[in-house]
Amino acid sequence: MTLLSLQNMKTQIGQYHVLHDISFEVPQGGVFVLLGRNGAGKTTTLRSIMGLWQPQPGSVTFKGKDISTLATADIARLGIAYVPENMGIFGGLTVEENLVLATAKGRFDQTRLRRIYTLFPALEQFWTKQAWSLSGGQKQMLAVARAIIEPRDLILIDEPTKGLAPSIVAAMGEAFREIAQDTTILLVEQNFNFARSLGRDMAVIDDGRVVHRGTMADFAADTDLQGQLLGLSA
Amino acid sequence: MKPTYGTIAVKSAMLVIAALLLFAPFLFQDIRALEVAARICIFIVLVASYDLLIGYTGIVSFAHTMFFGFGAYGSAIALKQMGPGWDSVALGTVAGVALSLVVATAIGLISLRVKAIFFAMITLAAASVVLVLASQLSQLTGGEDGITYRAPDLFKTATKLAVDGDGKVLRWFGVKLNGKLAAYYFVFATSLVLFLIMLRITVSPLGTVLKAIRENEARAEAIGYRVVAYRTFVFCLSAVVASLAGSVYAVWLKYTGPDTALSFAIMIDILLMVVIGGMGTMWGAVIGATLMVMAQYYLRDLMGAASEATAAIPLLPELLAPDRWLFWLGIIFILLVYFFPKGIAGTLMARGQRA
Amino acid sequence: MMNRVSETLGRLGGVNLLPLALAAVAFVLIGAPSSWVTLTVAGLSMGMMVFLMASGLSLVFGLMDVLNFGHSAFVSFGAFVAATVLAALSTWLDGGWMLASAALALALLAAIAFGLAAGLFFETVIIRPVYRDHLRQILITMGALIVSEQIILAVWGGTPVSVPRPSFLEGAWIIGDVSMEIYRLFAMGLGAVVFVGLMVLLNRTRIGLLIRAGVENREMVEALGFKINRLFIGVFMLGSALAALGGAMWAGYETLITPALGGEMMIVVFIVVIIGGLGSIEGTLLGAIIVGLTANYIGYLAPKLALASNMILMMAILMWRPSGLRPAVK
Hints:
The complex is a heterotrimer of chains A (234), B (355) and C (330). Chain B has helices spanning 5-22, 24-27, 31-57, 64-82, 86-111, 116-136, 138-141, 179-202, 205-215, 217-223, 227-253, 258-261, 264-277, 282-309, 316-320, 325-339, 343-354, and strands at residues 147-148, 171-172, 175-176, 255-256. Chain B is an all-alpha fold and 355 residues long. In chain B, strands 1-4 form a two-stranded antiparallel ribbon. In chain B, strands 2-3 form a two-stranded antiparallel ribbon. In chain B, helix 1 (5-22) runs antiparallel to helix 17 (343-354). With 330 residues, chain C is mainly alpha-helical. In chain C, strand 2 (172-175) and strand 3 (178-181) form a beta hairpin. In chain C, helix 3 (33-64) packs across helix 9 (206-216), helix 4 (71-88) packs antiparallel against helix 6 and helix 12 runs parallel beside helix 14 (306-320). Chain C is globular. Chain C starts with a helix and ends in a 10-residue tail after the last helix.
């Protein structure tokens, strides 16, 4: 079943057309990976889905509903969480406050909270610390935890492994696998090995267009295509 | 580029205004009209120099009157203390310019590297402090009453520039060739020169850089322009021109006080003029200054009549009273910023381009 | 060595110590303890009233990156609305303690109500269309300020309006040779109550959490499912109401007010938020107290320097800390 569908999405920022033709379908469940070179338009795609940039009307459908003209807050309330590249942590707030803000009613569901503690033990340890004092990896954990503190249908995650130590990247991969059991993840990633280990379906964006769609298994097997689309040498 | 219909309209308006100002003493032979014409000349320079700042670099300063006041008080104090001579005028002008330069550099270096909004606040604070200082240092500045003094002899009304056979002052087309006429043309000529210099600057490479900074600061910085240095330079430049305009105005008026040279009301006038005329075009300054000064002198009479006519309606007569004309200007100002942010000149010129 | 000193200072409260240092220096310079107490009380009460006026401006800037040059219009309107109510209820003011308090409360509430309504109007009509455009924002709010001042002139006229106040706030408490005006103590107390209220709102409520988060990262607050525009209207109204309350208190303090009041206070308010750091309530309070104390000490020690002193203070602090003493975390 299709959860999110983009049809010829175009996005204009100021006078510049940043996205020309983005079409792909994210099925329910698992991790969908969006690949592409720097500046290809991956982040803009996520921001357009989230309503932070204005996409072409009628081009974004979520759970069968056109969300392209909704306000960001309304999109979020339909069940989409967003973990931006800069993580969007509120540094002046404590870990607890960051998380409580993301709950719908200002109260924690203890089951979900325990799950977060299990996935990211560091957050329990630094529960009352102000978020700016966390390490980069811990901030990323907090950002992801904030996205799953309430049940969501889709989480958009933008380059979560950027600048993280390998051990933390591995832990993050475990966490994503766990989360993907009941939530769909749309993951933008530069780290191809990380993406390959998680993704089921994938698409490649270049210069504001989707240039390839398929399964991760097929793409991972085709090193020529990888070299051609991502500039990776085998 | 082919001149458009709108551009032609603006340019011909320029020619008409320039001609009217050039022949003002002959066309309108009364004292009040000459006052209006001189004020228009001065304000064209003042507004154009402000436009260099707001229109060409996108920074808002509320201290422009302060620099105008430095120049005016410089001349005024020198003329008062040293007597009416050209040396006093020169010394006062130079002192005003020097003070303006120092203050502008200091403010620029401290605050131009931060947000535009910080700059606006700091200039506002600086200007108000200077205003209070001027009223407190009354031995020097005359306080609230200001200073009255005499201009150089050449500009005295009694001075005869040319005499006829009887030793009486010669008349041309019915206009006495006296010191008043000389004073007017002194104002006109200096204003014209200052305006042309600024016009030249806006079409020079410097003008291009400034526009680049205004359009996209980060990009200009990335290309390698030192944005803070350019901004500080323009801020100083506009301060110096404002100061010079102040000095000339002080010589013309033979009086300098907070109301003519320093008050916040003048700052508001400048803002209104630049927005009404159109930011980012030197022509806008000419149109804005001309319209506003005319309105200041003649619209109030009209409002007085309107106020009397509506005496029966509550509150309306109070709002139509001549003293309340800023109320209406304020509303026009807000509407202009919303709907015609390019002002009269900018809107006209854009219209021509589309056609 | 220097590091150790600054560390110790930091542990003791860092920049929060500035008012204390200021008071200590002034104590030495003034020499007479009784005058010092009087001046300190005057400075603190002035600081608290300015804090009321400035807090909204700072908060709105922090949250929405909007600087409202028309903010001082709320101060003026608050002052004149309160003065009008007090004048209308002047018989109550002489009618004993209960009635006088009721009149005062009504006057302050009227100012607050007016501030809320004016804030709603301002936010939706004047500022909403120019959210992300600083240049037009400055111009439009300046235009709104001009119009507001003209409305005040049209309604209340240009002549000074006298402000009656309840008799129980008149006079001074005298302890030994120290005299403290009661109204000033009242203003100080009210300012402190508002500050504590704001701190509780910001730190102990969900709305406050949202405001603090919004100051840091607007987009992320939206992405968590909150409509930041509604939050902003609320904060703008709150800020306007506080400014009006500050204006009302100031009217009672001055007892004779003119339409120029808003313009005069605006400069002080700007200096306070610049010194304190835009966007933070603690910073605004700190800035307000420093400005209030400096104004009163200098006014006593070197009256001619009084206004320039604020400017010099601002320049000095900006050179030391370009974004103010305690800016909001960005």
